[in-house]
Amino acid sequence: MTEHAAFSGYGLWLLAFVNSVFFIVFALSFAKPQTARDWRSLGAFSAFIVALFTEMYGFPLTLYLLAPWLQSFAPGADILTHNAGHFWPTLLGWRGDPHFTPIHWLSDGLIVAGLWLLVESWTVLHRAQAAGALAVEGPYKAIRHPQYLAFILVMIGFLVQWPTILTALMFPVLVFMYLRLAKSEEREAEAQFGDQWRAYAARTPGFLPRFLGGRVTPPGNVASAS
Question: pTM to 2 decimals?
Fold first, then answer.
């Protein structure tokens, strides 16, 4: 097998750059970071995106490291090709184009849902901030932190579609960071809005709506929120 064949579909650094810029600029255009906390939130998401597309189109480090193990599950498959980067279809031994599988459709659905939620939540949040009001409309009727849930959904979607060692290690760290940022935001909101905030927090789950099992947690205890 030649080196070109072994790494078919990789070395596309321009494509990695374009995709990274698209998702980062998309998030930036709606997040409109103003505080250091906002920039940390966006920066963490951006780091995840860059790491993802570097392996998706640049160099398949995860596939390279796991090739011997994966080959035992998919004998005869060309593990270091781009299609094999769709980890779950390869691991399950599915043949054909991995873009047309239930796993890829699930991934697409999670990514689209996350991007939609990001647009909706930041639109409501910025409108409320401009009016000096508490954001309680749109997605904020169902959960207190839809903007962070949006980032998490997009990351889960990409992990379903294209898991890598680096992004899998980054994901729990980023989720923990978002929980900490949410807790900090809640302290500021309570200080600014007082009883209005406490009444809102008493009826609204943190990260999951009630129909998905979300539970209301006391203000200041976001780190254990659903």
Answer: 0.81
